[in-house]
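Quick question, first post here. What does this chain look like in 3D?
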Amino acid sequence: MSERPHRAHTWAPRGETPVLQYHFHWKTLSAIAGVTIWRFYFQLYAGTIRKEEVVSFLKHLCRHVRGRLLIVWDNLNQHRSRYVKEYVAAQRGAIELEYLPACAPELNPVEYIWGYWKKHELPNLCAKDLVALGASGRAALRRMRRRPALAASFWQQALLSLYSAMLNNYATRDLASRDSRS
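> Answer (accepted):
Ran it through. Tokens below.
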């Protein structure tokens, strides 16, 4: 997320072009999130997410989610860093890591959080500074978190993509086995 607005369709009085005013030197705010079946957890950081922020977020999850954690991540380098692996190993089985296939954002429910967040909660937001951007982003994520059906829909969309990928894989294997028999 950056101070530069995510542009979406908007409105203006008839005959007037809508204008979004923002400056061209913008700073970024990064978000990290985890999704359970009915709820999601998030943290915002100035700049990019590094391995220290990933461990900080894992500690945040351990404080808020009871029991063992199964973390399913994409293949971001920070997720696979030695620092993160050492932290997870120090938890003695309280956290287990699995990774999504490379280049498969459609299987990650967190990607649907970010898409909804940008398109439906923060379109055309022109923040004056990083503090205002963070406040607006945090407020939008909290509004989204109060809607458990929304978190469930992110899972449903990711599972539909997974199911579709599995069917395509099965169909491809089935065709290959038919071709080998003939």
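The chain is about 45% helix and 15% strand.
The mean pLDDT is 81.
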